[in-house]
Amino acid sequence: MSDDLIIKPKTAKESEEKNEEKVSKASALPSKVIYEIIRREGEEELARTNRSLIWSGVAAGLMMSFSVLGEAIFRTYLPDAPHSYLIENIGYSFGFLLVIMGRLQLFTENTITTVFPFLDDPCWACGVATARLWSIVLAANVVGAFVAAAVMHHSAAIPAELRPAILSLSEHATGMGAWQSFMRGIPAGILVAALVWSMPQASANRFFIILGFTWLIAAGDFTHIIAGSVEMAYLMVGGELGLWPALTGFFLPVLAGNIIGGTAIFTMIAFGQVVDELPERRE
Description:
This protein is mostly helical. The protein has 14 helices and no strands.
């Protein structure tokens, strides 16, 4: 009989290795692996040029306008029913899907991504690099938001029947008052940071992870600095909201809330659970 036709039984070692491989594939990623993936992504972002950050940030601000448009479309055409609110808020996820799946620079993602490299190696240079990225991306996101708002308000690109819903959404988002805007910004910051933390093991389910987390931001009536900036800008370019009320009543409180939720709360908790499992700090 030919040796090729002889089926050799697996050894105990081979069976054990096969079982171990199956267990590894079925197991969730350890926290320290997720941390390392996000930390390396943060280092890559920090190494990008100012020009790259600006263009990516402006594009993200533009794309976030589709969160407002998505909600407005649902609000305009859904029947008036108690459950319509929950369906309407699916539209809020559209901008986030475009931005995150397209790997564009969104400020609130960076409240965790670019902070991990600093926590891994705290130094003045790392802090300056993080501040540089934050300031460029935030400014670029806001510029993109204003461009999108101007197009929505002053051009024929948006159907006239959507404008009342856009106006209503914008007035609600910016009319909460400074303290409430700040407090509702904290859960939004936590949810965006948790979304980033979940992405490394999301694999093919990324679409639904993004959809679920961002829908919760809208359904919970939480405040997000970039999506909200589109609504703020829509009122400002229409002359319905002044610069000072926009800054003090909405923009700065929401910005602070998102940073506290994303960095001071979620990022520090995520880092705390892995810090004892990490290798020695880099020199």
